[in-house]
Amino acid sequence: MTMTWPALILLVIGILLALTAVAALYWAAKTGQFRNMEQGSKEIFDEEEPIGQPTDMFFKKKKNLEKNKS
Length: 70
Description:
- Helix content is 64%, strand content 0%.
- The relative contact order is 0.05.
- By secondary structure, it is mainly alpha-helical.
- It has a domain of 39 residues.
């Protein structure tokens, strides 16, 4: 069974992408990127925004539209 050049190129690219993903995962684990993941999820909120409650205008507009339909 012979491989064509495009198939060989795609195979090499796929292997390189897989190795890159494994290397990135190894680096992230080694440098502590996965430690205390809960803290990182709370850093996006400021003092005025309650945790877990969306205050963006997108959500408010959606709620207003639902009220107007009624």
